Amino acid sequence: MHSLMKVEVMEILFNLACFDEVRDRLLINTTLLNYITAHLQVSNNEDDINLQIIMFLGRVCSISNASTISEVGLVENLCALFLDRRDDVDIALQSLYAMYCFLAYDCTRNALLQQFEKIVHYIVELSQVITSLLLPFKRPLQEVEETKESLQSE
């Protein structure tokens, strides 16, 4: 299947996954899980597809399929890809969101915590970079808040 078509299909599945009954069946009753497991690999250089898969995993993770996500090794694959693609901000941020979603369920949380030592340094590093990028906006926001307060006191 052409790479662009794969991306489009994953986007469609991502949008369908907002419906609970569809979301719960997407991974359990299809071969989609095999496809995702095969493609969410460090060796896969198709970052657009990886990004769509990561976004999809964040959306579909639920109590009914968290154990399946954990059992097939998708948590480990996601963490490995997160570390490998450090320079890709989109993959890094979507991976963090998917990891956040994984924390809600015991089996995915346990699998994620097993990877914690590997990823914690990069998460801290990433938060420092984001903080440094936001610092220039701190002063203008303070001025807006001060202006707002002075207008309210009048």
Structure description:
One of its GO terms (biological process) is microtubule-based movement. One of its GO terms (molecular function) is kinesin binding. Pfam families: KAP. Helices cover 78% and strands 0% of the residues. The chain is mainly α and 154 residues long. The chain has one domain (3-153).
What are the key terms here?
single chain; 154 residues; mainly alpha; globular
Provide a brief overview of the structure:
The protein has 154 residues and is mainly alpha-helical. It contains ten helices and no strands.
Q: Which H/E pattern describes the elements?
A: HHHHHHHHHH
Please compute the radius of gyration using only Cα atoms.
19 Å
Mean pLDDT: 84
Span between termini = 65 Å
Number of domains: 1
Shape category:
globular
Ranges where pLDDT stays below 50 over 5 or more residues in a row are: none
Q: Please count the helical segments.
A: 10
Structural class: mainly alpha
Helix content: over 70%
How much of the residues is beta strand, in percent?
A: under 5%
Note the main sheet: none
Number of strands: 0
InterPro entries: ARM-like, ARM-type_fold, KAP3
GO biological process, one term: microtubule-based movement
GO molecular function, one term: kinesin binding
Strand and helix map with partners:
Blueprint: H1 3-16, H2 20-28, H3 32-39, H4 47-60, H5 66-71, H6 74-84, H7 89-102, H8 106-114, H9 116-134, H10 138-153
Helix pairs in contact: 1-4, 4-7, 6-7
